[in-house]
Amino acid sequence: MRISLRNLSRGPLRAAMAAGVVASVAALALPGAAASATAELSSSAAPGTQVTGTLANGTTWVAEFPAAWNGTLLLYSHGFGPLVAQDAPDPATQAALLAAGYALAGSSYDPSGSQWALDTAVSDQFQTLRAVESTVLPHQPKQVIAVGTSMGGLVSALEAQQGRGKISGALSTCGIVAGGVNLNDFQLDGQYAIAQLLLPGQNVQLVGFADAGAALGTAATLTAAATQAQSTPAGRARLALAMAFLNVPAWDATAAPPAPVSAGDPAAQEAAQYSNEFGGAFSIMDFIELGRPAIDQADGGSASWDIGVDFARALQRSPYRGEVAALYKAAGLSLSGDLRNLTQHTSTKADPAALRSLVTTSVPTGRLEVPELTLHTLGDNLVPVQMENYYGRLVARAGSSSLLRQAQVASFGHCNFSSAELVAGVQAVLHRVTTGHWDNVATAKSLESAATALNLGPARFTSQRPGELTGAVPTPFH
């Protein structure tokens, strides 16, 4: 293990951190997948010093602890993007956590593979924990809490499934907790709906991209089709159907502050969804397509499929069913006809080996070994909040509901949490770990009160619950 120390600094030190919360899926590996590294330091680092190291497989890690350490270490898992070691989601939250007395650590994951670090992330994180405990901290932590963002939110959820004896609890934020199979498939359903309904007869490549350029080419084709469709009632109705399968939130991001659009205004809902999915110089569709080559690289092929999907059944419980039906009626179109069209013309098959890899590495079982709190923004336009609904039921089926609590934040955007909301989440998990009881600390009211008292930004916790994840795989794979 290579280790270096330098004075803790802000600004440029964390400049790459924002890139970790783009498109998302997460990684899982069995502990010990990479060879253990041998520590070269015989004593801990000085408080206020940043320490970096390298594991045997090339994974880099970073850690730091404050002078007034409270005995808790936060093991941070970053999101999809550059494989750069990070120990907090952003500089402001990092500073707040250090000021509150928490030690921080996190890794880059194995740099030799895909940015969707499916095979090694959990193993890399647990090995980082061992390295930090033996080389950085003045004594063993009283408790270790796994914290993750986006793809890293799934990493922390997977850590909670195999964390006994390693971590004490987990905080998963804006995580892909419904798993990589669901992410792949509902995104493919929505993209296929755009291609089939808005570009009939055209051979649009949706999977198996050779590189990022090909993926962005498809994103541009789908975005152009959506832009043209937005100009007619029929086009908007069909686009609303596709965006229902994509689980795009109907939030008005131009409002101050952004707010959900009333379900009683289908036209406004669709307009907001269109802006949220396709607006901007670099749209969410671009992020979605760019993630596919990385996922394929990690799994050795495409793990997505649409053959066998019943699109009418998939839409039946969608939170956007009423919006879609109203727009189809206003446009004079047959919703049932378009749903039959989609069901009858599917053609994409998953590569069996790739699907096995995806299931093994990035689909949670819900069988928790330590307490876990999940936080999600209601207006997440990249990783839909409906994933939390799916995950909650998955954990219940596994018999682990007593260990799980879930909370929502009324804000728009992917991982758009304030430092106050994130620190309040950490405090709630710490309470459960130290007392053995959740009590009421993970309720919206309690989290709101705790976040407000921190004076670190807005507190927007809400008791509103997410609806069904449209297009979700009906049963777990494990």
List keywords for this structure.
about 475 residues, alpha/beta, Rossmann fold, 2 domains, 10-stranded mixed β-sheet, two-stranded antiparallel sheet, 12 strands, globular
What does this molecule look like?
This protein has 478 residues and is α/β, with parallel strands linked by helices. The chain has 2 domains: 2-179 and 369-462, 3-Layer(aba) Sandwich (Rossmann fold), CATH 3.40.50.1820; 181-357, no CATH class. It is 40% helix and 13% strand. It is built from 15 helices and 12 strands. It has helices spanning 91-99, 121-135, 151-161, 180-198, 212-229, 233-245, 266-278, 284-299, 311-316, 321-331, 335-344, 352-362, 386-397, 419-435, 444-454, and strands at residues 2-7, 49-54, 60-64, 72-77, 103-107, 143-149, 169-173, 251-252, 259-260, 372-379, 404-412, 461-462. The chain has a 10-stranded mixed beta sheet with strand order 1-2-3-5-4-6-7-10-11-12, sandwiched between helices. Helix 6 packs antiparallel against helix 10 (321-331). The longest helix has 19 residues, at 180-198.
Continuous helix count: 15
Q: Termini, distance in Å?
A: 35 Å
Q: Radius of gyration over alpha carbons?
A: 22 Å
Mean pLDDT: 90
Low-confidence stretches: 1-43
In CATH's first tier, which class of the largest domain applies? Answer: Alpha Beta
What's the CATH topology label of the largest domain?
Answer: Rossmann fold
Instruction: Kindly name the structural category.
Output: alpha/beta
CATH architecture of the largest domain: 3-Layer(aba) Sandwich
Shape: globular
Helix content: 40-55%
The largest sheet has its strands arranged as 1-2-3-5-4-6-7-10-11-12
Strand fraction band? 5-15%
Tell me the number of strands: 12
For the biggest sheet, the summary is:
10 strands, mixed
